[in-house]
Design brief:
The chain is α+β, with helices and mostly antiparallel strands and about 725 residues long. The protein folds into 5 domains: about 10-145, Beta-Lactamase; about 155-335, GAF domain (Beta-Lactamase, 2-Layer Sandwich); about 360-420, Helix Hairpins, CATH 1.10.287; about 430-590, Histidine kinase-like ATPase, C-terminal domain (Heat Shock Protein 90, 2-Layer Sandwich); about 600-730, Rossmann fold (3-Layer(aba) Sandwich). It is about 45% helix and about 25% strand. Strands 12, 13, 14, 15, 16, 17 and 18 form a 7-stranded mixed beta sheet that branches. Strand 10 and strand 11 form a beta hairpin. Helix 12 (about 340-385) packs antiparallel against helix 13. The relative contact order is 0.05.
Length: about 725
């Protein structure tokens, strides 16, 4: 036995027992040291790895690589080109580069491979690295690989579902809903037919009202019975089980196969929809050639079937509501004695309509949140997986760590925009010169919008002031400007104008006001906004841009900020003449102007004296409390920890002199952080208090004077800066 091959595991044993003398490698003891070392490292790794050695491309691999091979014949000792002969034309050039001394890293590389009964499309992220001997000559290559098929297909599935959802959101006709759904699904799966059928009460008869089909396919429109397609399919569907037919020649009896063949169907995938214990509907896809249906295709069809049924039922419910309203109107004209009955039915109908619309809005919102967060979580999870790789270079480790950090920031921005739309975003209002701020933003937009867009700023000679969150104000104007840039396709003019002492007009059903407002308008020279789109542009996750080109949250942030600041935002558009957004915000006098925004101050590092301050942490979440406690201790502060507001009050004492500062969560059981801060300010007015929260309805609705706010998720640097700011202001 070779002393260097002391590893456990299946592949280690197979390498020890293999007849290497019959290969170009020769007996184990005669292998070069670099090969022995590489084999030992590969066998010790839990990451899927294989070695391709010498001119014969002899293959060796570890236990982690076995699942990637599937049911392929034993690959150990065989040429790599023979093991992957079905894909060799795709990967041979990459292997040649590795043997030429050039490492290659590729993410989500698609390959058609055969590791089961039929070929399948799979995705891989891999790195081909050259292996050099003691003289620097390339003698082999190391293949480090991860299969990403599940991740790629999940991303594609979510994109299809999003496309279907967008296509049917504004449709009330069941037939249009099905046409859009079937066309999108069939185009993605590249099938011959896609059909949706309603079941009859006997759970045998069904009617295909419409179907999508390729140009030369036979239409499936018509009335059928499940029994005509065999007892096996009938029993499966009634039991709520999918009907999976990869090839009618091998999967079905000859008589049943002939029924399918008459429609040009060779393979089929059919999903039953069971509601209330009854077979309610069917959705099926067919192909004219044998096809092995994957679990991902089955899952996608199941989700589409459920959503299609929900959309169709919603459309039918809406139609029923409209018919009911029409009938009630007729009764009102002809049957005065039935006023009470008509009124009751009207209330029921209106409630049903509102519920239908509410469910649709909730579905769109939750779907958008799930889609965006799943995308962000995919990046984080993939980066973490790669960070676990052995022998990861410093450059790649920094890249993946940066990806995690950047993605967390994007997730934080996403939640911030949602809270802004819901008017639940804690604001930091300040009095500032609105004209000067618009001028600064205009200068910034000259860079953001590109050289082919001319930015014009029109301001009055006199200074005017507003009281608002300066950061949210800038974000709102930038969001409007970026939408204008996209509408102008990178060429045109954008005019920012400030008007003062104007009244707030009624906007989209919201009441106006005769008070003094500033009106900040942005006029572009794009193609304008379609009237059907105009009424939805402030809804979260509504976007006309391609998938991946926009979240649909920019304008919803503008609306939420304006309403929470006591104003509103209006939009008007004429086809071919661009669009005009006008942001109305309450005007104030110039007293109490803040020279600098709070986050624009430089607080530096804690001094030796400041580092000795005692800080009380108030946090009910164990993990977050430990994290905050560690941050402050690492910064040099003395800390104590209270699990709730009542415990914190006992620890600070009646005069609140036991601590130099308080760092508290907002949302806690019992006493909230806002209530705690108010009580602490009563006991000791100058006590620095910092409140931290990811979301707080109470904090968004009420001001807490003299208290600093830190949004979650926060970093150690943010904690340090806001604590120093609070301490030095006292």
């Amino acid at each position: 036995m070779a002393d260097w091959l002391q590893h456990d595991g299946v592949m280690a044993q197979k390498i020890r027992n293999h007849d290497w003398a019959s290969t170009s490698l020769g007996p184990l003891d005669g292998w070069p040291d670099v090969l022995k070392t590489t084999v030992a490292l590969v066998l010790a790794s839990h990451f899927p790895q294989s070695i391709v050695w010498g001119e014969d491309l002899i293959t060796l691999y570890n236990d982690g690589f076995v699942p990637i091979l599937g049911t392929k014949p034993e690959a150990l000792g065989r040429p790599f080109s023979d093991v992957w002969k079905e894909a060799w034309s795709e990967i041979s050039g990459i292997a040649d580069d590795a043997f030429a001394g050039q490492a290659t890293y590729i993410e989500n590389f698609p390959l058609v491979i055969q590791r089961s009964v039929r070929p399948e499309l799979a995705y891989f992220t891999f790195c081909y690295s050259p292996i050099r001997d003691q003289f620097g000559q390339v003698v082999g290559m190391l293949n480090t690989v991860t299969e990403t098929t599940a991740t790629v297909l999940m991303t594609q599935r979510l994109a299809v579902l999003d496309a279907i959802g967008s296509a049917v959101t504004e449709t009330s006709d069941p037939r249009e809903i099905m046409q859009a759904t079937m066309g999108t699904l069939a185009g993605y799966l590249k099938v011959t037919h896609c059909a949706y059928a309603d079941m009859e009460d006997d759970e045998d008869g069904f009617f295909i009202r419409d179907n999508w089909l390729v140009e030369d396919a036979t239409s499936l429109f018509g009335q059928y019975r499940l029994g005509d397609f065999g007892e096996g399919p009938l029993a499966s569907l009634r039991a709520g089980q999918p009907l999976v037919i990869n090839d009618i020649a091998s999967d079905l009896a000859p008589g049943v196969a002939a029924t399918f063949r008459a429609f040009g169907i060779v393979s089929a995938l059919c999903l039953p929809l069971i509601k209330g214990g009854k077979l309610t509907a069917l959705m099926a896809i067919h192909d004219k050639a044998p096809r092995t249906w994957s679990p991902y295709e089955l899952a996608l069809l199941g989700e589409v079937a459920e959503r299609s049924w929900a959309h169709i039922e919603r459309a039918r419910a809406d139609a029923a509501v409209r018919e009911g309203l029409a009938a009630l109107e007729h009764l009102n004209l002809t049957l005065e004695e039935r006023v009470q009955e008509r009124s009751a039915r009207l209330l029921v109908a209106e409630a049903a309509l509102r519920q239908s619309q509410k469910l649709e809005a909730i579905g769109q919102l939750t779907g958008g949140v799930a889609h965006d967060f799943n995308n962000l979580l995919t990046i984080i999870r993939s980066s973490v997986d790669f960070l676990r790789m052995p022998n990861l270079s410093d450059e790649r480790r920094e890249r993946y760590m940066s990806a995690v950090s950047d993605t967390v920031e994007r997730a934080s921005k996403l939640t911030s925009q949602l809270l802004a739309f819901a008017r639940r975003q804690p604001l930091n209002p300040q009095v500032f010169n609105v004209g000067q701020r618009i001028q600064d933003i205009g200068d910034m937009l000259n860079t953001l919008t590109g050289a082919r867009i001319q930015v014009n700023v029109q301001l009055p000679e006199q200074a005017y002031y507003i009281r608002a969150d300066s950061s949210q104000f800038e974000t709102a104007l930038i969001n409007i400007a970026l939408n204008a840039r996209d509408a102008m396709e990178g060429q045109g003019s954008l005019t920012l104008r400030l008007d003062h002492n104007v009244a707030l007009p009624p906007i989209r059903g919201h009441a106006g006001s005769r008070g003094s407002f500033t009106a900040i308008s942005l006029q572009d020279t794009g193609g304008g906004i379609d009237a059907r789109v105009l009424e939805h542009i402030f809804e979260p996750f509504f976007t006309t841009k391609e998938v991946g080109k926009g979240t649909g949250l920019g304008l919803s942030q503008v609306f939420g900020f304006a309403k929470q600041s006591g104003g509103n935002v209006d939009v008007s558009s004429i086809a071919g003449q661009g669009a005009r957004f006008t942001l109305y915000l309450p005007q104030v006098d110039g007293s109490g102007v803040d020279e600098l925004p709070a986050d624009g101050q430089q607080w530096g590092e804690p001094s030796a004296e400041e580092g000795k301050y005692r800080v009380l942490i108030v946090e009910d979440n164990l993990e977050v409390g430990r994290f905050a406690n560690q941050i402050l201790q690492d910064l040099g502060y003395e800390t104590a920890w209270a699990a709730n507001g009542q415990e914190a009050l006992l620890m600070v004492g009646p005069d609140a002199m036991a601590f130099d500062a308080i760092f508290s969560d907002v949302v806690m059981p019992g006493m909230s952080g806002v209530a705690l801060a108010r009580e602490l300010r009563l006991r000791r007015a100058e006590l620095p208090v910092i409140l931290a929260s990811g979301y707080s309805d109470e904090l968004a609705r009420s001001a807490c004077e003299g208290v600093e706010f830190l949004a979650k998720p926060y970093s150690a640097d943010q904690v340090s800066r806001i604590l120093l700011k609070a301490i030095r202001k006292k």
